[in-house]
Amino acid sequence: MKLTLKLTLLAMINTLMFSGVFAQAPREITNVSSAIEEEYDPISSLLDSLVTITNVVRYNQLDANCFDPDAVVPGAIPTFSNEVYEQRMASIHSPIPLSYNAHVKGFIDMYAVKKRGLTQRVMGLSNLYFPIFEEALDREGLPLEFKYLSIVESALNPIAVSRVGATGIWQFMYNTGLQYNLKVNSYTDERRDPILATHAACQYFKDMYSIYGDWLLVIEA
After folding, report:
1. What is the pTM of this model?
2. Rounded-to-integer distance, Cα 73 and Cα 167, Å
3. R_g of the chain, CA atoms, integer Å
4. Helix (H, G, I), strand (E, B) or coil at 193
5. What is the tens place of the pLDDT at every residue in 158-209?
6. What whole-number distance in Å separates Cα of residue 130 and Cα of residue 147?
7. How many beta carbons lie within 10 A of that of residue 172, not counting itself?
């Protein structure tokens, strides 16, 4: 994918995550007393929450200056001015330069309106995958914003396969996967393992930065 498109999508995703377009309301916690205490499994609980669409599509006010929550119709798609998007992108502190322009606005409209269902699904899945990515990126001293590249590449689909054979959340090609110690044979494909592939992706990012010394070129690579 060309650098301009990747940077545009990266900027768009950052803006959506922080703009309130897909903001979620705080989860309500209810104490339920029961004669039999069930053992709490955090992984099962998380997976259950991901298939409950109401936990993904709720809206919440993040900035009182942007819109009046009392004026929001349930299910309606909130809209913001160019100035709001520009201000919010300018407030994101990142080692990767993010700019707002007509191309970014076009992708915001695409993913916030035309492909809203896909974006809702991705934001739900991010609760599962982003902690894994953030831990690995932080451990390797890499920009945390690189977690959003997984959305650009695969929409957080661990079994995604491109037309040219790139596979997994990070879309490793066959030879690149082998180069970064990902086992690929007739029985297993570790490019589809979110944890192993993330470790490999981090090493790839570091290797590319040692060559180019520029995060934008790393994204292109």
Report:
1. 0.66
2. 40
3. 19
4. coil
5. 999 999 999 999 999 999 999 999 999 999 999 999 999 999 999 999 999 9
6. 7
7. 26
